[in-house]
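ligand=nicotinamide-adenine-dinucleotide
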Amino acid sequence: MNRRGLVLAAGSAITASAMGLPAMAATPERKLGYAIVGLGGYGLGIIIPQFKNCQHSKLVALVSGDPAKAKRVAAEYGVPERGIYNYENFDSIKDNPDIDVVYVCLPVSMHAEYTIRAAQAGKHVMCEKPMAVSSKECEAMIAACKKAGKKLMIGYRCHFEANNLEARRIARAGGIGKLRYFRSEHGFTAGNPNAWRLKKAMSGGGSLMDIGIYALNAARYMTGEEPVSVYAKETTDRNDPRFREVEDMIEFQLEFPSGVIGSCMSMYSANQNHILLIGDKGRIDLEPGTRYEGNQLWVGQDRSKLVTPPPGPGATQWAGQLDHLSLCIINNKEPIVGGEEGLRDIRIIEAVYRSAREQKRIALT
Ligand code: NAD
């Protein structure tokens, strides 16, 4: 271990608990091998380049339906020939000891199948958000990983993002007094009407499944509470070719046991990325709040005090996310955003859709 590694290891137990992460033994030498399934915008564009920032995770395999692309990416990132798979021979990953973890970066309707097949091949799983198209699928994924004795983590990167961690720490420490109100709007402008995100069978739903889930998840991790009811309203122009199958705007209110009210808006027709917590002594404001880069945090009565957060657990939010799963595997701990966390969001999302459909408040059990 080099000097930086020693210093990091010594400080890790203290900082880990401050960040809500389990304390882990220092394991400097070992890097776990990841297979990325789906070389699309996120898998190839965002995740693969992040392994260079990791201390405990490395790229060892690729799964793609496009052999030429897989070969090109493998050459660029030093993945050996034996680490290249397609969707047909995917199950033979069980014979590749280089692979410890399968990272599922596929359209949502494929998450359950590839998570379950990975677990059956004896591999741990990182699965992208939203976990699956239904809570029933989420339950099957959890059961398959449990049966195989493998870890399952959901790609909730914001739990490793420095501004979000600092905002949560300040809120929990009473930095804005008693929390009364949480608000978050998340949206982007959807383009191509033929994209899988706009096909219900592949996405499981519209903006809420894809981007509104950030508002919902933030409502839960910022308050530290589980909502007891939801009330939702959908607004979608069904003549817009993008929204023939899935919703555009859906706003939903969450009631928390402490009396905190959460108010969220999810959109596929406008760009917005904002998290606001209002307490009886001040506000915590993040805008943008959950982007890849450039998130900003203000704490106080208004936006006069920009806060620079202490560094997160990794060099980037993705390095923190990937190394968290690797360390959980090495130390046999449960990930802070495991399958149950993904399932909770999907159960609430199902209740939000039901509330919008039936135009009534839905109690959550
Ligand atoms: P994408 O369309 O860019 O990539 C999807 C990949 O799946 C492509 O390589 C495509 O070839 C492959 N694929 C295999 N079978 C397919 C099929 N039948 N139809 C369509 N594609 C198929 O999508 P993406 O943006 O990379 O999203 C992938 C996952 O990552 C989704 O679950 C998404 O929610 C998630 N995601 C997460 C974040 C985040 O910040 N955590 C950001 C973007 C996407």
